[in-house]
Amino acid sequence: MGGLRFVQISDSHIGFDKPANTDVTATLRAAIAKIKAAPEQPSFILHTGDLTHLSKPSEFDTLQQVLAELSLPVFYVPGEHDVLEDDGKSYLQRFGKGTQGAGWYSFDQGGVHFIGLVNVVNLKAGGLGTLGAEQLEWLEKDVKRLTSSTPIVVFAHIPLWSVYPEWGWGTDDSARALSYLKRFGSVSVLNGHIHQVMHKVEGHVSFHTAMSTAFPQPAPGSAPSPGPMKVEADRLKKVLGLARMSFHDVNHPIADHRRPA
Amino acid sequence: MAVGSTVTWTNRDDVPHNIVSTEQKFKSPVLDTDEQFSHTFDTPGTYPHFCSIHPKMTGQVVVA
């Protein structure tokens, strides 16, 4: 059986060195090694943001060097940690080729339409993640030409569903984005940001968040704040990972299988 | 607080934050753990601010 196979990794936070994980480059390398060791290789990688911790050139360098070991195409969207300085210009210089606005874009692979969205810039006081009017207009146009049977994969850093607004885990204008995708028979939404796996299904839309390759964060509301969670050293690798996803038959989709590494 | 007072913010968290005036009157660089930012308030008024990385974090300084 053919089909399309890809891997999502997220929240590598290169540059983070606090007790929750003092060597985030090593844990990213471990994730890369798992991808390499898998019997069936993915066609490409999605990185759903927070490549770096502080948007420093040296951090972006390390991230790119480690991922280059895979010799696979990598598709990125920024997290808020990747656009800390100069409105994300250094992110766009590296990863923005062929993208629109703050770095959003779409592409087609194996009959599936992939849409990378940016919801980490121009955030408003008191608010959540934001897509903004310009990106929403682009999205509406981008999907207009597609038939409703086209499987859609949307990936963005901050969850596009309301996971836990009290901690900022949601996107203010995601409902409008999802309204443009309502007519499609299969929509998968992949996010990072919350450093843990959660799933939700709403009609034809399935939402998934991924683990970080750097450090875990507490379950919603289970701690005073969402900061990095320190776990015992032997448990750390169990709460970090990646997500594998495949469309076994793009003509009969919604056949996605994900599991932590 | 009194006109002419200086406020110093210290990031005591494990993740970076910044202090941005909602009305764009001042903006700190991104502060990593234990880094500080100071701003002197020379004019009476209410100064709402937030962390533009984590916009749910808000505060205000009242100068009279």
What is the number of helices of chain A?
6
Structural class of chain A: alpha/beta
Largest interface, with counts of residues having CB < 8 Å to the other chain, equals:
A-B, 22 and 20 residues
The major pleated sheet of chain B works out as: 3 strands, antiparallel
Q: Domain count of chain A, please report it.
A: 1
Report strand % of chain A. 15-25%
What letter string, H or E per element, gives the SSE order of chain A?
Answer: EHEHEHEEHEHEEEHE
Shape designation of chain B: globular
CATH homologous superfamily name of chain B?
Answer: Cupredoxins -  blue copper proteins
Provide an overview of this structure.
The complex is a heterodimer of chains A (261) and B (64). Chain A contains six helices and ten strands; from the N terminus they run βαβαβαββαβαβββαβ. By secondary structure, chain A is an alpha/beta fold. Chain A has one domain (4-247): Purple Acid Phosphatase, chain A, domain 2 (4-Layer Sandwich). In chain A, strands 4-5-6-7-9-8 form a six-stranded mixed beta sheet, with no helix packed on it. A four-stranded mixed beta sheet of chain A has the order 3-2-1-10, with no helix packed on it. The two termini of chain A are 22 Å apart. The N and C termini of chain B lie close together (6 Å). Chain B is globular, with a radius of gyration of 12 Å. Chain B is built from no helices and five strands. Helix content of chain B is 0%, strand content 41%. In chain B, strands 2-4-5 form a three-stranded antiparallel beta sheet, with no helix packed on it. In chain B, strands 1-3 form a two-stranded antiparallel ribbon. Chain B has one domain (5-63): Immunoglobulin-like (Sandwich), CATH 2.60.40.420. With 64 residues, chain B is mostly beta strands. Chains A and B meet through loops of A and β4 of B.
